[in-house]
Amino acid sequence: MQDDNKREIINRLRSIQGHLKGVERMVEEDQYCMDILAQTRAVERALQKLDGVILRNHLNTCVTTAIQGDSPAERERVIGELMLVFEQSDKL
Amino acid sequence: MQDDNKREIINRLRSIQGHLKGVERMVEEDQYCMDILAQTRAVERALQKLDGVILRNHLNTCVTTAIQGDSPAERERVIGELMLVFEQSDKL
Amino acid sequence: MQDDNKREIINRLRSIQGHLKGVERMVEEDQYCMDILAQTRAVERALQKLDGVILRNHLNTCVTTAIQGDSPAERERVIGELMLVFEQSDKL
Amino acid sequence: MQDDNKREIINRLRSIQGHLKGVERMVEEDQYCMDILAQTRAVERALQKLDGVILRNHLNTCVTTAIQGDSPAERERVIGELMLVFEQSDKL
Question: How many domains does chain A contain in total?
Fold first, then answer.
C-alpha cells in the first residue's frame, strides 16, 4: 500500500466508525426509521468510496506489476481477482 | 421502532464498528489490499442486512399505519419514500 | 396493472429491445469494448427505471389493497414480497 | 474483441432480446406485477453476466496491452476506465 493511500484509508475508516456511532445514537433516541436508513446508506456510500481508493491503489501497484511481469499465471490471478470484485458488485 | 428491533439494530451497529476496527488494523499491518477490500465489502453486506431490518420494521409499522389511515397525502408520502429507497439501490 | 402504466411499460420494453439491437450491431462492427459496455449498462439503467414503474404501480394497487384489507396473512405476504425485492437489489 | 467472445456476446444479446419479448407478452396478458418484475430482474442479471464477458475480454486484451506498453498516459487511461466501471457499479 502506498503511504499516502494508507493514511487516507485509515482516516476514512475512522470517520465511518464515528458516523456509525452517530447512527447508534439516532436509534437510541427513537428517531424516524427512514432518517436512520438514510444515514446507514450514507455510510455504505462512504465505504464504497473507500473501496475505490483501495482498488485504484491495487491497480496502480499489484495489478500493474503482475501484468508487466513474466508469469502468465500471475497475470491470470490478478485478472481473476478483478473479475471477482466486479461480479460481486452486480446487484441482482 | 419496535423494542426488539431496536436492540437488534444497536447490536448490529456495534458489531459493524468492531469489524471496521479490525479492518483498520489490517491496513496498519500492510495486509494484501484485496484481503482488505474483501473485509470492507463484508461490512457493506452487514450494513445492507441492517437496512433490511430497519425497512421491515418500517413496513410493519409506519407504512402499514399510513396505508390503513384516512389521509391520501400520507399514503402517497410513505409510498414516495419507499420508491426513493428502491431507486437509490439501483444506481448503475 | 393500470392502463397507462401498461402502455408505458410496453413502450419502454420495446425501446430497450431496440437499444439492444443497436448494441448487437456495435459488437458486429468490432467497436471498442468499453463503448459497448457503456451501452449495455445504459440498458440496465433503463431496465431499472422500468422496474421503478412496475413497483410504483404495485405499491399503489396490490400492496395498498392488501394492507387495507382484513387478512393479516395477505398483509404479511405483500410485505414479504417487498422485502425480497429490496434484498435482491442489495447483493454485494 | 476475440472471435469466440464476439460470438458468445452476440448470442447472449439475442437471447436477452427474446427474454424481453416474453416479458412484453406477460404485460399484455396482465400477469401479476411481481412476476413481471422477477423477469425484468432476471434480464438485468443476464446483462450483468454479459458485462462480465465483455470486461474479462477487455482485461485480457486492451488492458494487458496498455499496461505492458511504454506509455504511462495509456496505462493511466485504461486504469481510469476500469475505475469508472467500478464506481458505476456502486449501488447507493
Answer: 1
